């Protein structure tokens, strides 16, 4: 299976980590955005796939190499364009999130996806971390009953971000870039649909990062009166032990599940919540993606989930921009499309 | 100093714990609500103040005993009425929260307070827990810089609640009863004013508790683009080690402070957040209240804070009831009143 990489900005590491476990080969690399440098990535990839070639234009690369899979991970506002180019050529797409940074772009990707008969997944790789996988497995098997309330947290170190993070036009915003993971968890764990969102974000105190928002919170109402909240910040101190501090707390009718510090904690009639659960072994998101294309498995991240979380993140950003409650609706049409498509 | 207790429902324990440290005496007890039983409390109080008398009507008690202090802790919807009766007699009031369960009642209490020249404080006793006191002291001294994002949690066991919890009319709602503490922390720690709130709550899966909401979340915008979220639930499993699981996370420009599990954790340039801070010694809220009346100290909970958190909780409940964003405004007038009053 031939893989081309468009861009060197996002979590291409998911591909590099897994490529050796698959029969796939990285045959080409191209930048996906104006000014994006792919030489560092090229050096890395050459060690895994010595025949890899570098291209100046990803459309030429796709036309010439005709890969089965395109990995899209350029500047965030360019994900949609590159994905559409790949889908239009009947190529499976593994794309960095957010898949699009505007609703109009997301609709274009959706249209291209519906017309192509391929697999598509966004890089919601945090689902594959053992702590999240373990929590999800337990919750799915009824460990906390029915989920009623969810609280999610994304906290990152800011450091010095590349220039394109400083403009909404190229970056897309912190809710779609950072918060989208948390938004994805809310839907993935509960199985509920989003009904409305009220969100806020602020760029104050962003240490010279232009328009980049460093704090945000999204309040979601979901079906069946499930309530959820997700906070995100870039204010994690530099000396913290890890880059990020991801957390999730799920309150159910029969117990409470928490993911924190790379561990999962269960509080229910059988567990007092003080000890972390034994973790399931990790799996690779890209290996799973390839397996699904081969008809040999199923990636935890479906195309529908990828579109759904992106749309929810973009509507949350809109709520924060406008200071207004946003009611979902678009996505139900999309869901119908998918069912009938 | 003579103290009368109206009601036996709320945290009268604050008074019983501290009374021996003060020169105050509990001279009378009366129920504050239809059907409220005070005999159990009477037995307890007799051990501390053998001369205590029981009354059938608290107005008669206040008229006959003329206490300096009234403690109000009856069914929540009756707090306002009892407080107004005490204030009208020039008696200092230490009242269970929420001080009122409707905005109209809160305005009546405010009017009575402005006309009386006494001290009033709501039982925001959680401020006095060593973990919160320690965190507050550090934050006040700049340990995390300027607060930008706050997340608070209140989680309780439900058990079997008394009948009056099952009706909004007598209970007032979970946001004003449980959530008000978290709402109080947001203002107390940040010093910011509330700008707007969007909140949700649900009574589903409340195990036969009528209208009582068992899950809720409140999203607040505060001045200076500070963002905050507070969740509350009654779904803490029966076998959990403690009745409650109070948490607070404060993200600042120079660090992150967390209160969790009775401890305070500081992550900043000097602390890696892994060790809990040495805790300040506890203080008693009622002892402080009495000291303030004597002119010998200052209670951490001011009258203005008590009104402010109550109003914020009632507006949050209104938002949840209506599914609408609520903008603050009333309280600014109140604040002006206070400044000029």
What does this protein look like?
The structure is a homodimer of 341-residue chains. Chain A is an alpha/beta fold and 341 residues long. Chain A has 2 domains: 2-118, Rossmann fold, CATH 3.40.50.720; 127-282, Dihydrodipicolinate Reductase, domain 2 (2-Layer Sandwich). Chain A has helices spanning 13-18, 39-48, 58-65, 79-88, 103-115, 130-140, 168-171, 174-190, 285-293, 303-322, 330-340, and strands at residues 2-6, 25-30, 53-55, 69-72, 92-95, 120-122, 147-155, 194-202, 215-222, 226-233, 247-252, 255-260, 263-268, 271-276, 326-327. In chain A, strands 14-13-12-11-7-10-9-8-15 form a 9-stranded mixed β-sheet. In chain A, β4 (69-72), α4 (79-88) and β5 (92-95) form a beta-alpha-beta unit. The interface between A and B is large, with 51 and 51 residues.
List keywords for this structure.
9-stranded mixed β-sheet; 6-stranded parallel β-sheet; 35% helix; alpha/beta; Dihydrodipicolinate Reductase, domain 2; 341 residues; 25% strand; Rossmann fold; 11 helices; homodimer
Topology:
The structure is a homodimer of 341-residue chains.
Chain A: E1 2-6, H1 13-18, E2 25-30, H2 39-48, E3 53-55, H3 58-65, E4 69-72, H4 79-88, E5 92-95, H5 103-115, E6 120-122, H6 130-140, E7 147-155, H7 168-171, H8 174-190, E8 194-202, E9 215-222, E10 226-233, E11 247-252, E12 255-260, E13 263-268, E14 271-276, H9 285-293, H10 303-322, E15 326-327, H11 330-340
Parallel strand pairs in A: 1-2, 1-4, 2-3, 4-5, 5-6, 7-10
Antiparallel strand pairs in A: 7-11, 8-9, 8-15, 9-10, 11-12, 12-13, 13-14
Helix pairs in contact in A: 4-5, 8-10
